[in-house]
Amino acid sequence: MPAPSVLLAVDIGGTFTDIVALEENSGRIAVEKLLTSYPDPSAAVLQGLSNLLASAHIPPAAIRYVVHGTTLITNTLIERSGAKTALLATAGFRDAIEIGNEGRYDMYDLALKKPAPLVERRLRFDVPERMLADGRVWQPLDRERLRQICQRLRAEAVEAVAICFLHAYTNPAHELAALEIVRQQLPGVALSASHQVAPGMREYPRASTTIANAYVQPIAERYLERVAAGLSAAGIQAPLNIMLSSGGTTTVAAARAFPIRLVESGPAGGALAGLHWGRLLGESDVLAFDMGGTTAKAALTRAGELAISHQSEVAQAHRFKRGSGLPLMVPMIELIEIGAGGGSIARLNALGLPAVGPQSAGSSPGPASYGLGGSAPTVTDADLILGYLNSDYFAGGDIKLDNNAARNAFADFAAALELPLERAAWGVQQLVNENMAAAARVHAAERGLELRRYCMVATGGAGPAHACGVAQGLGIQRVLIPPAAGVGSAFGFLTAPIAFDFTRSYVARLDALDLRALNAILAELEREGRRIVEAAGLPAAAISARLNIDMRYVGQGYEVRVPFPKQTLTARHIAQLQRLFEKEYRAFYGKLAAGLPIEAVNWRVLISGPPPQVSGADFSAGAEFSDAPVGSRRVCYHPEKSPRATPVYRREQLRPAWSAAGPVIIEEAASTIAVLPGWTAQVAAGGCLLLTREEGA
Amino acid sequence: MIDPITLEVIWNRLISVVDEQAAALIHSSFTTVVREAGDLSAGVFDRAGNMIAQSVTGTPGHINTMAHCVRRYVAPKYPIDSLRPGDTLITNDPWEASGHLFDLTIVSPVFYRGRGVAWFASTCHAVDIGGATMGGDARSLYEEGLAIPLMKLFKAGAPNEELFDIIRANVRVPDQVIGDIHAQEVGNQVGARKLIEMLEEFDLPDIEALSARILDRTEAAVRSAIAALPDGIYRDAIAIDGFDSPLSIACAIEVAGDTLRVDYAGSSPQVERGINVVLNYTHAYTTYTLMAVLAPGIPNNEGAFRPITVSAPPGSILNCSKPAPVSARHLIGHFVSQPLLTALSPLLPQRVLANGSAGLWNTMMDGISADGEEFAYIFFSAGGMGAAHNRDGLSATAFPSGIMGVPVEAIETAAPLLMHRRELRVDSGGPGTFRGGLGQVMELEMLSGAPANHSCMYDRTGSPALGLFGGKPGATGEVQLSDGTRPHPKSHYVLQPGQRVILKLPGGGGFGSPLERDPRRVLADVQAGYISREAAAREYGVRIDAAMTIDAAATAALRKERGA
């Protein structure tokens, strides 16, 4: 029997569960898409797997590697359906999660709501103990009092406990002792300690992260067990790896200990896919752009890598308002999220002017043209009216779009604006494109990046139809539409290395680093990381470690991330550290604050295996080529001009190196690609479509 | 003629251009005030200086004062046609700009096809401006630092070196101050570049037609919001702590058709301490409060200001005359929101809030740390907000200011301080059908073993946040040392080693009679520890027994006895 050679990726989204199988030697890809099952998402996974293995004739024993990503954690937090959780906090500080940052995320909204803490106040307990900022013990842990609290927790039938003591990231002794006591007193209760889950300074986001981890732990544990058991029942013996929001994958054991690191792993896969396809075509500056039914997400590379953020939020009280969610301190691929998708609803704003979103018709009732009861005008309806979409070939012909329903939905909207219907539809398309471009522009400006150099990789059901329009608004000249764009996230999982990172806050000026203490911390972080990555079955020699240090000028509020090539520091390295910091600082801010002392704040050790080799992916294998368009339709590209007759092609029929000048429409099962006038399309490496804009067009 | 689609597309683009301006500014800034607390504003203006769009960052005190500064001061004094490409103007005149010398307003004209087409401006809080440090102690403006009358910062792209030298010679941390001035200029230039790209892309000669449409539409929307109110004069007056003795803020809101006039006649005269407010700043917090209540979905631009006029007697605390000291003008300025909300409450009971703690509590400590080095540290904290017709007030949340607090771990890492507790303050929210937000309690001690100077900038220690429609006031603030003595809440004293200072921040006012609060909500508050069992009986007439259940009979009797 040949060696197992199939890689399998499973992505559970809110609506769909996507499964991708890649045969390493031939590059052959098989895809399965089915509705996510509720309340037990593992049911759809196992059903989809059995469908896919049967239709693609893959014996379970041929599977070498399985990677899985899920929205379960995010959904649990949004729906607040997690475990009954208690907080043990340093006496006097149990309200840190309720006091928060004392700010308002919207200046003009007097009725704004803040996210309620996951632990109600009566389940937040004061534990007498105190560490100082430098790690010295000010007040020892009161073990007796803690045992009494445990009795209360037992009486309350608490299912999970989060422990967050002040400055535990500097000295975890009290948290460790408390863990031990609670474990003895309350066997079977899920436990999370802040120095393990989110060991960074700032008690509010650290406690929020630790609580969220405890809150989802029992749910994640049961779920991961079911998936593992199901795979094994299906005869799949390959190790199961879990996708993390940081763009790496890890073992089930590590995922069970740190389930909060699974938040937003689906979008992380989308960003990884963008990076993969961009690299395949030699692009290092990539804007991964994914537009689905309700939201659009974008990620940007910097110096060829996806940026990782350690400050994010989840379960926003007000969707798309930054600051309205529960803060999280976990490594996460930095994403721009915009409330704009195919289902986004057009409306009139307070001034009687047109606006699009963030309200969405979603997939139910969906856009008016779906004929499922939706009556509000949406972006998809506008795309249909303008001729971008084919009413008979949407979602591969599975959904028949109703042109009249779309026009009816737009009638009132257009009348209110005193505009012809087509012009109103054109306006909605322009507005949604402009909203997405604006979000990307401001994100780039915050980071000092110039988007004109970037190549956009467009995915998602609505992404390829809007890609050229958004690119034009950003001055971007190249757009890549990868194959199987509709299952981009799952495909991206296959490109993720096995990786885990640990962070420790250790704040010290460069001229006053305690190298002994620091090296002990770094060695411990590396040991913990290696233990997890090696458990995934990688040989020690294949594992590499990378150190990143967050540094700043003393007194600054923001840090700059500095990669450092060594794992152990000696006195000789201090000057090098300063030089590297200054290099990054200058790149980010343009100039230095010369003369000010520099301090290091967070030390981050990333342990990583090699990325799987998937460059041989071949989506076109077995297709029959044809140069002839399958049809033609009239498409509106400009409000002042009449619609233009536009040839329509089927993507799977386009042979390698095929090219055509826009306007051209290219249809495939999961999306429609609009090549606008002034753009040229060609079939490029790996089955990608490369759209380029002529200079001055 | 611009159709509504094109108007909205270009307008959105203009907002994104201003956000890019702000992002570039923040990105290049050297100071935490700008970068972390977001203490800045950025905006774009038409040829005449009308503010068309502002960035989403910032505080009302900066945005609305900047709008007035450009239209009424900069554009008349330096008409855009009298300037050249590469010119940039600067001022920190408290009366023309944002009310104290710390705020630098930097304004750059934009030229396109040989003609001035727009202005970009930003206002940022400088970390230092010379003179006495921030606080209310100064007796006149001249003690408060360097004043920069409106002048050129750059002339045709070349820096005004004399001015830079003067600034450098007057401030304690010149690198940071000059660095942020450059950051503001960088932001303006990024905005200008993006605006020109926009004009090219949409084939527009300038933004005059666009501006006219945006301002007219906004003005019309605000006028119709005002017209929906019944004509009349609506008044309120509140007492506030003042520096040494209580002051009064009185307002009269006159609604006449689609216009609204706010007059502060009856407010106290200006004082010889740096808490006086210039009219521009009074105007800014007045229009902010009115917009938040009347028209929260309508954009904030010059069109929104047109139907609203604001006046206060010259020489009063809200329209002080030169050279009154103004450094800590926010201590008073944040309170103008309070009587406005109360005055509007009979008209819009479902939109307003009861009064809240309003003023930030600014704690500043300086002294010698354990290693013998000098340190100085300041942090801001918030009390409770007022309740509304259908919800409790937010606890420990800043309003109307837009700042954020600092985590205890960050405070203790940066300064030799030990915070013994920082928790919500039980029974501090004003009782009501909906309860006021809770204040917080902080207990601090020095860790260095040496005494430290503690500068207090605390308000509502005398005058509480009043409730609405039968709601009760929130608790007043308290400053107390562990030996029982009470320091002056707006001055400074020496905190001795081993001594603790306890800060109890004020709570927000309640909304509606507490006797009508759902007993189950009262029980939930007791269970959570937001209120005590005693307060449940005393204030709400709800008897909760030791087993934490509502004694229905006793409750009915209690409430009947109180006349509920």
Fold and architecture overview:
The complex is a heterodimer of chains A (697) and B (564). Chain A is built from 16 helices and 35 strands. Chain A has 697 residues and is an alpha+beta fold. In chain A, helix 4 (143-155) crosses helix 5. The model of chain A has no long low-confidence stretch (mean pLDDT 89). Chain B has three domains: 4-218, no CATH class; 353-512, no CATH class; 513-564, no CATH class. Chain B has a seven-stranded antiparallel beta sheet with strand order 2-1-5-4-3-6-7. In chain B, helix 1 (4-28) packs antiparallel against helix 5 (174-202), helix 3 crosses helix 7 (279-294) and helix 4 crosses helix 5. At the A-B interface, helix 3 and helix 12 of A face helix 1, helix 5, helix 6, helix 7 and helix 11 of B.
Which characteristics define this entry?
heterodimer; A: 697 residues; alpha+beta; nine-stranded mixed β-sheet; six-stranded mixed β-sheet; 16 helices; globular; B: 564 residues; 3 domains; seven-stranded antiparallel β-sheet; four-stranded mixed β-sheet; 14 helices; 19 strands; 31% helix; 21% strand
The unreliable regions of chain A are none
Strand content of chain B: 15-25%
Q: Proportion of β residues of chain A?
A: 25-35%
- In whole angstroms, how far apart are the ends of chain A? 57 Å
Share of helical residues of chain B: 25-40%
Radius of gyration of chain A: 26 Å
Morphology call of chain B: globular
- Uncertain regions spanning at least 5 consecutive residues of chain B: none
Number of domains of chain B: 3
Largest beta-sheet characterization of chain A: 9 strands, mixed
Assembly classification? heterodimer
DSSP, total strands of chain B = 19
Output the radius of gyration of chain B: 25 Å
Structural class of chain A: alpha+beta
Instruction: Give the rounded overall mean pLDDT of chain B.
Output: 92
